[in-house]
Each structure stands twice: as structure tokens, then as C-alpha cells.
Design goal:
The structure is a single chain. The protein has 512 residues and is an alpha/beta fold. It has two domains: 340 residues, Alkaline Phosphatase, subunit A; 113 residues, no CATH class. 33% of the residues lie in helices and 16% in strands. Strands 1, 2, 3, 4, 5, 6, 9, 10 and 11 form a nine-stranded mixed beta sheet that branches. Strands 12-13-14-15 form a four-stranded antiparallel beta sheet. It has a two-stranded antiparallel sheet with strand order 7-8. Helix 6 packs parallel to helix 9.
């Protein structure tokens, strides 16, 4: 086959030679050499303790976050988003890997008392959103607000810059006011043609109770009907009392505790608006995909926890999610999707928005179909675990089934404060707390009322939990075994084992 070049191209070949042509073609195809000559950004903002139902977009009666709700007006929001765990460390495993947190829970010999910092470690061969962006030439950085998201636990991998507080004094030296300017400076330091991915993780809502701020604590009036004053515990983890770590030093009613929380959201909202206006100025805003998500929720008495979190129920798991794609991506601005979403779905979504491949071991599903199609659905079930009480919860579009063991709680006080006595006094065998409720009608959001309801439906959802748990355990086993292969110097074996172990769930389950 003969290829005839146009005369202008022939003359160019004569002057600069074929090698010059190849260089010109390569430059024109380079991912950062777009017609605009400007790099693209992906910004993930993760907020601990942010409940979906404490925003106007979630049906709340207080305007706690006018800027964030306004941002949702130019985004696609997902009203049925659930965390994979009611704690930041486990939830952030899902955000950064697209997998269930179980993959990072270390195998600890029975009876061995390990420090909490040693219980979690993201395996080296786990899929990581940051590594995928880094491989594609993106600059990467994370500014996190919780010392448990440490380099030791494997959270740093894939980030060229990783800022994490030291445990001592972290409450005083971090937060939005400390981290946002650092991220702003990092973005400003990048070349205009440089693509970038950044994570901003904020725990300010966690600090609201222990660090009183009179201006924001009283921004909203306390509800008179919530005038009950809960007791104060000398423990940081307890049911039916305010934990010592969340005590302000004064006796507060449940209404005042709720007002403190709502005021903290309003304060964060203003800081978020100022940060985005500065960090994404000079044309960066339209070239940046922004995702804002809660890592977990916050119970205000509904679940038996007060100003705390750790239950597998709506107040602790139901979080807001908004994705505002960059210019050039097709989506329905202002659309709110009611399809079920899990935290594990965000990593594959952000990768696909940038035309990057999804690692096969990621258990989440891309939400791209939902950006343009209101009838689309990516999963049938969402799951969560790693709460104060051993067990799981499964959710579908209408129903929620929680099955936990209060007697197998994280601490003895958590077990006794829930049960009302020491677990040993209940006799032999496990004690199960099973709750099935219609999420579209029930007000039992905290799952305090134990019930079975439709036994056949409960058993089907229990079976889905078992299937999901087995899939997660298989992936966990292979990923954690791969760390030993690395130690022994065999770097190729992990990929073989992971690909062999990871199998999508049967058609129709659509859960990770």
C-alpha cells in the first residue's frame, strides 16, 4: 500500500527530517499538550462526620451549608450514598483503594493485644487511586487531618506529597484553617500544563464538641423539644452517654449538642467556599473535577451514641456526595440521583472521568452512567462493617438489614452500656441484634428497636452479607499474603495471585 503525503508535509520532511516529524506528532499526542495548553485537576474533599440529612439537600430544616448545597446545584449529587465503615480510617481505605476496608485489617493472632496503629495496613498491592494518577503523569498530594491515616498504615503510597499530623497536639494544629492554605500553595506551585490529583481530608466536625466556639455553637438555636440532658461518661467510647472526649465542660441538652454540630457544619461551609475561591482561581476551576463526600456520619442520640459514631446505621453511614466534573465532561448539572452508592465507588469514578483504567481488584463501580442517566443503577446492595459491634449491614434501594453482636463490642464498656449488664451474665452463645426496616418509611434510623420484619427478605439480605464477606476475605487474604512475597523478593507473584483471586460477584448481586 502506497501512502502519498501532502506537499506541505513533504516540504516539512525535507527541512526538518522524519525524526522531527515524529517528535512533533508525539508532542501533539502527549496528554498534557491539549488544545488549551492547560492541565486538569481532580480534587477530592473528604469530611469526617458529615451527615447527609443535616443539609438542605437531604431534607433538613436548617441552612447549615449554603455554599456546599449551591455547589451541588452545579454538580451531580447522590442522595443515597453510604460509607463502608463508621470510622475515618476504615472509610478512607475505601476512598483511596475502591475496596472494602477489610482488605487493610491485619490478621492478628487470637489473644494478642496490638496497638490500634498496628491493626490496619493497606497492602502494597492493593489498588490505589493515587498510584493510578501518578502513573499517568499527574502530580499527587494529600493533606489529611487524622494521625491514624499514617504513612505506617500505608496511606502515603502514590502521593508525592503527604501531609499528616503527629498524634500529639493534632487537634490544635490541624483542620481546615491549617491544611487548606497548604493545599492552595501546592496547587499554585504546579505548572499550568501539569495535571494533578489532590485529597483534602478534614476532621473539624469531630473537634466541634471538645473545642467550643461560642460564635458557631450558638449560630442555631437549640430545639426546645430536645431538652433532655444526657449523662457524661469518663470513657471515650460508650453508649447512651456523652463520651468524655466530646464533653465541652458544661452540661448540654441534646438540642444544644445538635446545634453545636450544625454550627460546625456552617463554619466549615464558609471555609470551604473561601478555599475553593482561592485555590481554583485564574481559570483552574473549570478545568478541575471536584468531589465532596462525607467519610462517615455522626450520631446525636438516634443510635444510642451521642456526639459520636460507630454504629452501622443511617446517622453514622448516610453521607452526602457531590461530583462536579471539569469542563468537557457530559453531565446533568444540578441533578440529584437516588441510586444506591457506596464509598468504594468514588475511586473508579474519578479514574474513569480522567480516562484512566480501573485496576481489576477495585471492588467499586464507576458512577459515570449516573452523570447523564437518571434511570441508571450501578449496584443493588451496599455494605458496611467495622463498627463498635461485630457484624455487618446490607442496604438496597428500599431496605436495610443490620446484623451485629452487641456482646462482641470493641470494648467491655461498649458491651455493658448497650446490654445493661456484663455479656457473661447473658449465658452461653452470641447475642445478636437484628434489624430490618423499610428505609423509605421507617423512622428507626438508629436501629435501636430490634426487629426481623419480613423473615424471607431478612434471610436474603443475610445471604448477601455472607457472599460479600467471603469475597472481601478472599481478596484480603491474597493482598496480605502478597506483602510476604514482597518481603521474600518475589515481586511478580502478587499480581498473579490477585488476578486469580479477584472475581466479580454473580450477576444480579452488583455489590462489591
Amino acid at each position: 500500500m502506497t501512502v502519498r503525503l501532502p506537499q506541505p508535509l513533504l516540504r516539512l520532511c525535507v527541512h526538518v527530517g522524519l525524526w522531527g516529524i515524529l517528535l512533533l506528532l508525539a508532542a501533539s499526542c502527549h496528554k498534557t499538550g491539549r488544545s488549551s495548553g492547560q492541565g486538569r485537576g481532580v480534587l477530592l474533599i473528604a469530611v469526617d462526620g458529615l451527615r447527609a440529612d443535616h443539609l438542605l439537600t437531604g431534607g433538613y430544616d436548617r441552612d447549615t451549608a449554603p455554599f456546599l448545597c449551591g455547589l451541588m446545584g452545579s454538580s451531580v449529587s447522590f442522595s443515597q450514598t453510604f460509607s463502608s465503615a463508621p470510622f475515618a480510617l476504615a472509610a478512607c481505605v475505601s476512598l483511596l483503594t475502591g475496596c472494602d476496608p477489610m482488605i487493610a485489617k491485619r490478621y492478628i493472632p487470637s489473644g494478642f493485644q496490638a496497638r490500634p496503629s498496628l491493626l490496619w495496613n493497606i497492602p502494597k498491592d492493593a489498588p490505589r487511586i493515587a498510584q493510578e494518577f501518578l502513573r499517568a503523569g499527574y502530580a499527587t498530594a494529600a493533606f489529611v487531618d487524622d494521625p491514624t491515616l499514617s504513612k505506617l498504615a500505608g496511606f502515603e503510597a502514590g502521593f508525592q506529597r503527604y501531609v499528616v499530623p503527629q498524634r500529639e497536639g493534632w487537634n490544635e494544629r490541624h483542620g481546615m484553617q491549617e491544611l487548606a492554605p497548604q493545599l492552595e500553595q501546592w496547587i499554585a506551585s504546579l505548572g499550568r500544563r501539569q495535571d494533578w490529583f489532590a485529597v483534602l481530608h478534614i476532621s473539624d466536625l469531630e473537634r466541634a464538641f471538645a473545642k467550643p466556639d461560642p460564635i458557631w455553637n450558638e449560630f442555631f438555636a437549640a430545639r426546645e423539644e430536645w431538652d433532655a440532658v444526657p449523662p457524661i461518661s469518663d470513657s471515650s467510647e460508650v453508649f447512651f452517654a456523652v463520651p468524655k472526649s466530646r464533653w465541652t465542660g458544661a452540661m448540654q441538652s441534646l438540642g444544644e449538642i445538635e446545634a453545636t454540630y450544625d454550627g460546625a457544619i456552617r463554619k466549615f461551609d464558609g471555609e470551604l467556599e473561601r478555599f475553593l475561591a482561592l485555590a481554583l482561581s485564574d481559570g483552574r476551576d473549570e478545568r478541575t473535577t471536584i468531589a465532596v463526600v462525607g467519610t462517615h456520619g455522626m450520631s446525636l442520640g438516634e443510635s444510642g451514641l451521642i456526639a459520636s459514631h460507630g454504629r452501622l446505621c443511617d446517622p453514622d453511614l448516610h453521607v452526602p456526595l457531590a461530583i462536579r466534573p471539569r469542563a468537557g465532561v457530559s453531565y446533568q448539572a444540578g441533578a440529584s440521583r437516588s441510586a444506591l452508592v457506596s464509598l468504594v465507588d468514588l475511586a473508579p469514578t474519578l479514574l474513569e472521568l480522567e480516562d484512566l483504567p480501573r485496576p481489576p481488584a477495585m471492588q467499586g463501580f464507576s458512577l459515570l452512567p449516573l452523570l447523564t442517566d437518571a434511570s441508571a443503577a450501578v449496584r443493588e446492595y451496599a455494605f458496611a462493617s467495622h463498627g463498635f459491634q461485630a457484624g455487618w449491614v446490607a442496604m438496597n434501594a428500599s431496605w436495610c438489614f443490620e446484623s451485629v453482636r452487641p456482646d462482641a463490642a470493641k470494648t467491655k464498656l461498649l458491651a455493658t452500656s448497650w446490654i445493661g449488664c456484663e455479656p457473661a451474665r447473658l449465658g452461653n452463645g452470641p447475642t445478636w441484634h437484628n434489624v430490618l426496616h423499610d428505609r423509605t418509611k421507617s423512622h428507626n434510623l438508629g436501629h435501636l428497636i430490634a426487629q426481623e420484619g419480613d423473615l424471607q427478605l431478612a434471610e436474603r439480605m443475610r445471604a448477601m452479607i455472607r457472599t460479600h464477606e467471603q469475597a472481601c476475605e478472599a481478596l484480603r487474604s491474597v493482598l496480605q499474603r502478597s506483602d510476604r512475597f514482597h518481603t521474600l523478593g518475589n515481586a511478580e507473584q502478587p499480581a498473579v495471585e490477585i488476578n486469580r483471586a479477584f472475581q466479580p460477584l454473580p450477576q444480579g448481586t452488583q455489590g462489591p
